[in-house]
Amino acid sequence: RMDDPDIGREEIRERTDRMIEETVRVERLIEHLLEVSRRDELHRSQERIDTILSGIVGRMEGTAQKLACQIAFEPGSTRRLFLDRVRIERALHNLVRNALEAAAEGAGHVWITTRDDPHSTVIVIDDDGPGIRPEDRSRVFVIYTTGKRGGTGLGLPLAREDILRHGGEIEVLSRPGGGARFVVYLPPESSSSDGGEAPWPAS
Q: How many Å apart are CA 76 and CA 113, to the nearest integer?
């Protein structure tokens, strides 16, 4: 009980922090559930992926410091892509946040690079966390699957959904030297069907 006279201020603060954290988690879960049930039309415009990622990295620096991690971005794309900025920004934010949370298990590092290949713009997000076992990789994009305390199991599936809707692809690999590597491929001219269904992985 919060009004118990035997409870000190520090314990009250910790309990309040936990309550706030749980409230935020539930709000995020509800938001994600709404996203799963709703498939809005994409609102595309010409965007530079490096500009989007620079903004994400800037906003995530505080989180990285809190997790005792280092985050580095090496831009290499000059191509303009026809994207729904809000959805792609959210997808990449989820991937970067996932990498930071994985790297935090060892106070590690996250590296983000981009490049323009002939048929796609490639985004590579590396972390030096514990990595993902080969037998578990097929499940990381399965809805409600999570190994994180307080996780919703929706961040990575929603990221994949948004990338697929842009005609892109995403894969998860082992990072050379240890950790995980997520690779996103976005076509120069997205050809995905805005009205069609992007397949969710079978559970």
A: 7
Determine the Cα–Cα distance for residues 67 and 199; give it in Å rounded to an integer: 34
Residue 72 and residue 77: Cα distance in Å, rounded?
A: 16
Longest dimension (CA), the chain: 68
Residues 6+ apart with CB under 8 A from 103: 67, 69, 109, 110, 127, 128, 129, 179
77-108 per-residue burial string, b: 16 or more CB within 10 A, e: under 16: bebebbbbbebbbbbbbbbbbbbbbbbbeeeb
pLDDT < 70 regions, the chain: 1-7, 21-22, 24-39, 106, 143-154, 190-203
Task: Quote the tokens at residue 125.
Answer: 């997000």
- CA within 13 Å, CB half, 158: 26
